[in-house]
Amino acid sequence: MRRILLSLALIASLAVLSVPAVAAADPSNGTSRVIPLGTVLHKGRLVEGFAFIHGRDNSAKQPRPGKTESLYTFLARGAKWRTVEDYVVNAANGDGASSQLVSNAVAAAATTWEAQVPSIFGAGSMTTGQLEADWNAPDDHNEVYFSQSELDQGTVAVTVVWGVFSGPVNTREITEWDLVINDALPGSWGDASGHPDLWDVQNIATHELGHSAGLGDLYTTAAREQTMYGYASVGETKKRTLDSGDIAGIKALYR
């Protein structure tokens, strides 16, 4: 009987992982997760998609101690941008954060990573047109936008990344990313410098663009100060600046 129950539990957990990423975020525990979106044939090759769900910090849930003290991790070894592609931002939000503030925040986030490794991201442009994350298949557009309906209140943001993450290391690459910022969070978005009641756009964008560049989340106690630490909180701005592990990780990936 115990073996049957364990099997059923495993089946149930796999079922959760197979649903769209927006339904997989658990607002009750504030955790961040990676959800596989499947494999599709795109432009003559198989690409995989993953959604990185960035949860709200839960002060009652302490980060687990790690068996190692590694301060960076990759989506997959060798999986990085091998071409430079532009991205588009729709800054519309319900919190009054200006288009200029959002544009500057995303551009600053990209510049922060490119100060360590040049030419990861292309140029950013603004649009008022509707954007949509690619949960099912890539569409060759890298997009950033706010959503009031796609994410639950336990999710700060989601980055969807498509690419080739298996096979020979020198053939792996990232081919597309989309960033969805939760416009339905309790609290408002803006510049949290001097305003600890705000969710900081640049802080979150810098973390999420780390995923877009090829880095994974960190959850160990030793990684608390890293930009890629997997929890976020209102008023936080420290992720704007890369720490030692972030710098070592991005340089190791793109060397």
Shape: globular
How much of the residues is beta strand, in percent? Answer: 15-25%
- Terminal CA distance: 52 Å
CATH architecture annotation: 3-Layer(aba) Sandwich
Structural class: alpha/beta
Helix content: 10-25%
Mean pLDDT: 87
Give the helix tally.
Answer: 4
CATH top level assignment: Alpha Beta
What is the string of SSEs from the N terminus onward? Answer: HEEEHEEEEEEHEH
What does it look like?
With 255 residues, this protein is of the alpha/beta class. The protein has a single domain (2-253), classed as Collagenase (Catalytic Domain). Helix content is 22%, strand content 25%. The protein is built from four helices and ten strands, in the order αβββαββββββαβα. It has helices spanning 2-18, 99-114, 201-213, 244-253; strands at residues 33-42, 45-56, 87-90, 124-126, 142-147, 155-164, 173-182, 188-190, 198-200, 231-232. The strands form two sheets. Strands 1, 2, 3, 4, 5, 6, 7 and 10 form an eight-stranded mixed sheet that branches. A two-stranded parallel sheet has the order 8-9. Helix 2 links the parallel strand 3 (87-90) and strand 4 (124-126). Helix 2 (99-114) crosses helix 3. The chain starts with a helix and ends with a helix.
